[in-house]
Amino acid sequence: MFAITPQMMSNFFNSISKFIILLSIILIVVAGVLIIFLENDYYQGISFKIMFIHVPAAWLSLMIFFSMGVSSIIGLVFKSPTSFTISRSLSPIGLIMSIVVLITGSIWGNLTWGTYWVWDARLTSMLILAFIYLGHLFLLYSFEHFQKADFAASILAIIGMVNLPIVKFSVDWWTTLHQGSSVFKVSGPSMTTDYLITLMVSFFCHFVTFILLVYKYFLYHYRK
Fold it and tell me: Alpha-carbon dihedral of residues 216, 219, 220, 223, nearest 10 degrees?
């Protein structure tokens, strides 16, 4: 990553942008059809379909922050402007994803648990992640010199990576209202095939949309 210049990244994004847009449209349509015609859950009814927005957004919020942390380490060690640009581009998208997770989770929680919020380990650690994203963005725009901003934001991103395993494994380490993992388990996924296929299509729909947003934010920061 540290050997790749911003110009190379810009050219790469430009070369695949049309394909990504077309793929995004196709995945949105396919995911929408699958979700609409998927049979409702026996216990939760139609409300469980929030999962197909909530879970992919949660996966992406963690993946994005991990990528920010890695980019920040590379940027600090190798003085790579591309790595800092990538980290700046990822930060607002990660914040959006974490907010989507919290909002959809609150709606789903109210329909399932009868309350919008409980201070359990998974929800609290996810809220902390959203605040770290917010702090990262705040640091990026709190300094007149962009190098100081990148340095401060990178330190926060690296420290914030400590929260990622807490978010992921909180349901295993503590007793929480939030259900445990249904996909990434040693024993294999515990959901039915039709649910799993719909979830994965929805995830790739979110992921391709994420790529488009990264493309836009990267070009914005690169042209600055």
Answer: -170
Q: Which residues pair with 45 in a beta bridge?
A: 41
* Residue pair 85/219 in contact by the 8 Å Cβ criterion: no
- Global pTM? 0.87
Cα gap 7→24, rounded to integer Å: 24
Q: What is the total count of domains within the chain?
A: 1
Q: Residue 71's closest CA among 61, 60, 82, 62? A: 82
If we measure between CA atoms, which residue out of 48, 54, 46 comes closest to residue 191? 48
Question: Tokens representing 12?
Answer: 């790469």
Domain of residue 143: give its range.
Answer: 6-223
Residue range 69-116, pLDDT digits in tens: 999 999 999 888 888 988 999 999 999 999 999 999 999 988 888 888
Rounded Cα gap, residues 86 and 67, in angstroms: 9
